[in-house]
Amino acid sequence: MLLHRFFRHNLTTRLIIALGGILFLSMLLWIFVFASFYPGFSLYPDLIRIFLIGICILIPAVILSGMLFYKWIADPVSRLSDIAGMLVDGNKIDQAPLNSKDELGFLGEQLLRIEETMAARQRFLKKEYDEYQNLFDLVPCLISVQDRNLRLIRYNKEFAEKFAPEPGDFCYSVYKGRTEKCEHCPVEKTFQDGQSHSFEEAGYNRDGEPIRWVARTAPIRDKKGRVVAAVEMSLDVTLRHQLAEKLKASESRYQAIFSNIPNPVFVLDPKNLTILDCNESVGPVYGFSREDLKGRSFLEFFEAGEREHYALKIKDGAFIHQARHFNHEGRLLFVDIRASHTLYSDWEVLLVTTSDITQQLETEQQLIQASKMTTLGEMATGIAHELNQPLSVMKTASSFMLKKFETDQAVRPEVMATMLEKIDANVDRATNIIQHMRAFAHKSDLDLSLVDINDVLKMASDIFVAQLKLRGIDVLWEIEENLPRVRGNPSRLEQVFINLLINARDAIEDRWGDKSTDSANRSITLTTRTERGCVVAEVCDTGTGIPDAIMGKIFEPFFTTKTVGKGTGLGLSISYGIIRDCGGTIAAANRKSGGACFRLDFPVPADKGTGEPGQSQNNLASTT
Amino acid sequence: MAKKIMIVDDDPHIVKYLKAIFEDNGYETCSASNGLQAYDVLKAEKPDLITLDLEMPEEWGPRFYRKYSREPEYKSIPVIVVSGLSGIDHAVRTAVAVVKKPFEPDELLDIVKKTIG
User: Fold this and answer.
1) Which of A87, A200, A499, B115 is the most buried (most CB within 10 A)?
2) Number of structural domains found in chain B
3) How close is the nearest chain A Cα to the Cα of B21, in Å?
């Protein structure tokens, strides 16, 4: 029992008690030793006395060694034990627990080092933990960790800011304000099968606003591999979804526009001109359905011989005027084609629109014809004069012959021959005039051929020059011979020049009255020359000139300065159209000396031998 | 009277989460985020059970345990270690159970129910 108590004390106390006991015992022994030396008190034999003396010497030695043991071993061990306790409590040790350089001192240093190492490791772990925590918090998506009952265990900053939840709240109440779990819960699935699940869902947030998110779940397992939690990562895609919806709406709007543009629109592969897509207007114009055309070549609309020529032009993105297309039934259409390179759903494509101008050409044709009839009326005086000449010759000859017959006079054969020759020649002359008239009045076609502008100008003035002479107007010629031929329609060009001559005549008469004594004031100058690859023809007069205010309008249809009934206002606009169709230009200017000057430029074609492909043989008249 | 559980953890998420679980199961709760604070709360609240995290700033779990377990008034309060640290099963010698984070909430509740009813 005593022993048991003794061992309940710590090492130092035990040592002190033990040393105290030993000291007490040694005191007793010394008493016995001294007593044995006392005479008459000889209790022991000498041998025992010696033994006692020995013990008495030994006891101080033991006490001494006990004290040394306490100083060098028990006390340091006790201090080391305290340090170890501090280590367990996680306290910091400021200095080496022992100053000695023996093994215990070394042990103390090692403890200090252990503490330092642990602290360093702890700092490192704390830093790592903070970093991961930071990472978890700052990931720009919603992250939550949930338990089997769908309670939130933890969540990141974005989640906290968006939903302001509390740990322990249920996922469904935080996300959707529900009181019970959702029907299809991916977190629950993850708990069931230990797999990741993703899903996209639409709903309403706590404020009742529609939201949409995509989410993915993953299991969190304990040491035994059991799924004890699930992490759910979701991304709010409301904005993206809204944008996608807007894009979709915008796309369908543009699709609707694309489909319903009245002109056919084709999306072509820029390499081989295969039709990738086209709009609904293709149907009424070409008679093909959209599906029929996809995958076919755009060039199939052209005649076989023209395809190569047009392929190059379309690929260049050039504007093509009045090309010939054939529809599903093989009917000829005249179309204007515009092509441009563009991006279509990130592909480089050729966007091609065609405008069916067949109807327009027919109308133009009719207008030209109407205008021609007007011109013809204007020409009537001149024609009458022209016809009068041969008629009077024939009348003179025939009257002469008749008179001879009536008076039974013989006509000498050579005179007879001369008379008949005159009659014959003048019949030819009259026939020529009439043929010219008929040729002019004939509805002309769209053919373009190579013409000499001088010839056309002469033809136009031939029929008109007599009339001008009657009105005292001189026609002056300044012509360059051997002009290169240009592309045009002779009959139409003649109409243009006649129009210009009529306008010149009217302008001169407006300025100088019906008659003037000075012929220098009443002249029309016809000039032709070549200039920078063009044939230039000018019709200049000495008339009133064109007021600046209307200079920009003179080529507009139905614009006229003439009194009602005298002009249709179509002459110049039709002339403009005809010259444009030849690839030329027409412009007006005033002369410094007074009067107007119309200048027509015709480009000299590079390939002088041939015209536009196909346009030399077919004509609009044949298609209507 | 409802039994009271003291939650000692430096992670406020875990504190709130455990509170939610315990309170939903009819327990009262109190909490502390480190050993020093826990000692004050312990004296004030006198809980019936302690869930103790080990790794905490200020004063870590084992020290708090050593401190209160010397006092006869508190030394019989059952303690459940709830920690993410591994290899510390003997840091709290008299612990009823050591629950490793992450844990199954029902498992923890089972232990609590068995211990304090």
Assistant:
1) A499
2) 1
3) 7
